[in-house]
Task: structure prediction
Amino acid sequence: MNSDVFEIAVKGMILRYRVCTSVYPPSEDTYLLLESLSLGEKVLEIGCGSGILSVYCAALGSAVTAVDINPLALNCTDMNSRLNHVSVETLLSDLFEKIDDSYDSIIFNPPYLPTEDNIEGSEQWNGGRDGFKVTKAFLNSLGSHLNKGGSAWLVLSSLTDIQSLIDSYKQFTFQKVKSISFFMETLNSYRISLNEEDHIS
Result:
């Protein structure tokens, strides 16, 4: 096996991937989502990065669409899909901008750090002053792309006011699934479902 090919073991499965220049690599938040997910038949990943989450979903038999605003991320996802012998549809899109369909499972590992960095590449971690700039844009459009009974999967950081976000989106139920703690921060994976009375058919 080539030295630039890495492996992740998750739920009895071995996933292989290459790290790509200028693309967010699989990290602790990626692994947190991998351990958290339960999936429907039709999956959308927003901000696919290396594509390892999409590859995992496809390996489990889901029909997967992966989108990103970075063309290099789409190239990386295509490469890692081939490396694992799975099929993932890739599409250049800013969040749901180019998405017309709805899905059983929607996955998003957003830029969640409360910072306003404007350096090149900061879009991978820059969540704005409250850490929710991109997350709120995602949630604002989520309901119209989630199938009835479907779930979204999201990473949120303890460095942000998570409860204030939950209180702002009463149309959703937020269920904490897993957490991983570091010296200064805890990352949490949440399963989000649309309350029945708020579902858009």
In short: The two ends are 48 Å apart (CA to CA). The CA atoms of residues 5 and 18 lie 5 Å apart. The domain at 26-48+58-66+93-198 is CATH 3.40.50.150 (Rossmann fold). The chain has a mean pLDDT of 88.
